[in-house]
Amino acid sequence: MEEQYFDILYVDDEQNNLDAFKASFRRDFKISLALSAAEGLEILKNLSNIPIVISDQRMPKTTGSEFLEEVSHRFPDSIRILITGYADLESTIEAINKGKIFYYISKPINPEEVKLILKKAFDTYHLQLNNKILTKEREELLIKSEREEKELIKSQLQNLRSHINPHFLFNSLNILSALVQDNDQAKTYILKLAHVYRYLLQSSDHTTSTLKSELEFIQEYIFLQKIRFTNGIEMKINIPEIYLEYLIPSYSMQILVENIFKHNAVSEDYTMDINVFINPDEYLAITNTIHPKNNLFESSGIGQINLIERYNLICDKKPKFIVENGLYIALIPLLPPNNYKDD
User: Fold this and answer.
1) Is 162 exposed, middle or buried, given 0-12, 13-18 or 19+ CB atoms closer than 10 A?
2) Which residues pair with 109 in a beta bridge?
3) For 309-330, how does the pLDDT look when each residue is reduced to its tens digit (9 = 90+)?
4) Partners of 284 in the beta sheet?
5) What CA–CA distance (Å, rounded) separates 190 from 179?
6) Segment 64-95, tens digit of pLDDT
7) What gap in Å lies between CA 208 and CA 124, rounded to an integer?
8) Prior bond to 108 cis, omega within 30?
């Protein structure tokens, strides 16, 4: 059975008043009637939401303002109107101030004035309803936008990760081929190589990693580079323990250290000194001596761009790159562990 719909619920303890109200407005509105507050609440409970609820003030057991207050709690979308005499104006004003009612109708009732009030009440109801729909749509759009933005950031981060130079893999494999005759050295090299790539695989889905894990990784990485460059590398790490749980973008140290070997000549004659420490501004500092290669082509700067864009996606801090006193200095912002949760 199809549920019945009414425009107005009118509550009054006098049947004559109910009959007169319905006779006056039945051509313009679909009206449901109730002889008490309890009956009115039962009708509201059983029927679809009724836009306008009207009650006489003077009723036994429950006054009109008390009834409409209950309606405001249980059916807040309804437009509530109180019919009241001059003697009840004080309680009517109190009801208006407390948000129990939107409008009041003074006795004796003037049908034309009431009709105008009812039309105004319907306008208010539909404005509220449309505003509620628009608010819900806005919230859904915001949720959708946040979800899409999050997916975009993940996509951008994945794209940035894919820019990491693959030359290291091929160089390592070439060295491995040359070491197969030296079993002990080959085994150690293979073990370190496995550690490096296990870390890369484990970190591939994480935006940030702890400084401790990055330092452990970079020491494995430097070991492999020392095999490649024999005695041409010296690396010193001086990081206070209190900073080890701070965060930096995953494998950002590898990007920076790899750039050192990409852009500089390294040999026993050109020893590469690398220092890792925390500077006075609490940035992670990585410095290296400069022995520029005689490259035919200028650097593309992909490593720096990669790191800058990754910081742009997770915070408002930026890495810094400085050349000073024969040193290349990379300064990496440290991120407090409690403020940057990885997804």
Assistant:
1) exposed
2) none
3) 888 888 888 999 999 988 999 9
4) 278, 332
5) 10
6) 888 888 888 888 888 898 888 766 667 667 76
7) 52
8) yes
**Cα–Cα distances in Å, from 227 out to 189, 221, 257?**
8, 10, 15
CATH 3.30.565.10 applies to domain 167-333: yes
Tokens of 170: 């091929």
Please, which pLDDT band fits residue 288 given cuts at 50, 70 and 90?
A: very high
Give me 332's structure tokens: 């990496």
**250, 208 in Cβ contact below 8 A?**
yes
C-beta separation of 238 from 277 below 8 A? yes
Structure tokens of 171? 């160089």
Give the helix ranges, DSSP H, for the chain: 15-25, 37-46, 64-74, 89-97, 111-161, 167-179, 183-203, 211-229, 252-263, 302-314
What is the residue extent of each domain of the chain?
8-134, 167-333
CATH of domain 8-134: 3.40.50.2300
- Three-class SS state of 3: coil
Residues 163-219 pLDDT 10s: 555 556 656 656 766 666 666 766 677 667 766 766 665 655 677 889 999 999 898
Report residue 140's pLDDT band, with 50, 70 and 90 as the boundaries. confident
> Which tokens is 102 given?
């939107």
